[in-house]
Design goal:
292 residues, alpha+beta
């Protein structure tokens, strides 16, 4: 009987309404199409002064003012001033904010998990972030601990248990043979002697790994033109989608057209001059090996 009462209490508690601070908040808009937030009693707790407002965790909101993004708490207090052109919500509880070379990861309280000093940050298998700074790649975990410093030419994971790393022009593969998610051992320097991992060098066939099978001048020329696509996509992202405008309306206004050539040239130049994994990286690596 006692156990039954305990189970009933757990059942009832599980269906009790959560505090108004979390459950009953909802977005509202004014006549100008700006968004804010009201509580269960229809009290405005965040003034409708934002072009966009998106929930982050249970404590904050991603907001857009004019063409910049930031973070406010449930009372409308600024946690991160809207000053960034790019925003991405990650796993519902993190937000990536940044411009060109100052991307950072923040939690729902506005605390920096990763400082705003990276040119790119992306998710990896196993609860990790792939970071890029000064054209060098590294890895951090979700707590902000640096697992690999930013000194590698390239890093990617083709499978959840395999990581491929390019260092000084040579490729290496780390495979976790033990079950469980990919995580680095405590003694990373002696990973080759760890029975949970298999470390192999694939320097003899870098083309197969990187996808760069180009050898002739024509192939390399094609690689240069292949940079057009990512440069174009990032230009569109910066000028339109990251500006918070609806795709259709921004196309109709054509306000972005005068900025396109300059922004595109900047993006394309970035991809061409990437020293470690850009369209000319294979050619550069081959030249280094011949010089040695």
């Amino acid at each position: 009987m006692k156990k039954l009462l305990i189970l009933l209490n757990i059942f009832v508690i599980g269906f009790l309404p959560v505090s108004a601070d979390n459950t009953y908040m909802k977005t509202v808009s004014d006549d100008n199409g700006n968004f804010g937030v009201q509580d269960s009693e229809r009290n405005i707790i965040i003034k409708p002064e934002y072009k966009k407002i998106i929930r982050l965790g249970k404590s904050s909101w991603i907001v857009q003012k004019k063409n910049k993004y930031g973070l406010v708490d449930n009372c409308g207090n600024e946690l991160i001033k809207p000053k960034y052109r790019h925003v991405e919500r990650i796993l519902g509880k993190y937000v990536k904010l940044g411009n060109e070379n100052n991307f950072g990861i923040y939690d729902e309280y506005g605390d920096a998990v990763l400082p705003p000093e990276y040119s790119s940050i992306n998710l990896l298998f196993g609860g990790m972030f792939l970071t890029c700074k000064n054209y060098k790649y590294g890895i951090s975990d979700f707590s902000g601990n640096v697992l690999l410093e930013n000194k590698f030419d390239d890093i990617y994971m083709p499978k959840p248990n395999i990581m491929r790393i390019k260092y000084n022009g040579a490729w290496y593969e780390i495979e976790r043979v033990a079950k469980g998610k990919f995580s680095f051992p405590d003694d990373l320097k002696n990973i080759e002697n760890d029975s949970d991992f298999r470390v192999s060098s694939i320097i003899n066939s870098p083309a197969a790994v990187s996808g760069y099978s180009a050898i002739t001048f024509t192939d390399y020329l094609l690689k240069l033109f292949s940079s057009i696509s990512p440069a174009h996509e990032e230009t569109i992202d910066e000028l339109m989608f990251s500006q918070g405008a609806d795709t259709v309306s921004i196309f109709m206004k054509f306000a972005w057209l005068p900025k396109y050539p300059f922004t595109y040239a900047k993006k394309y130049y970035y991809y061409i001059r990437v020293p470690n994994n850009g369209p000319l990286s294979t050619l550069k690596d081959n030249l280094r090996r011949r010089i040695r």
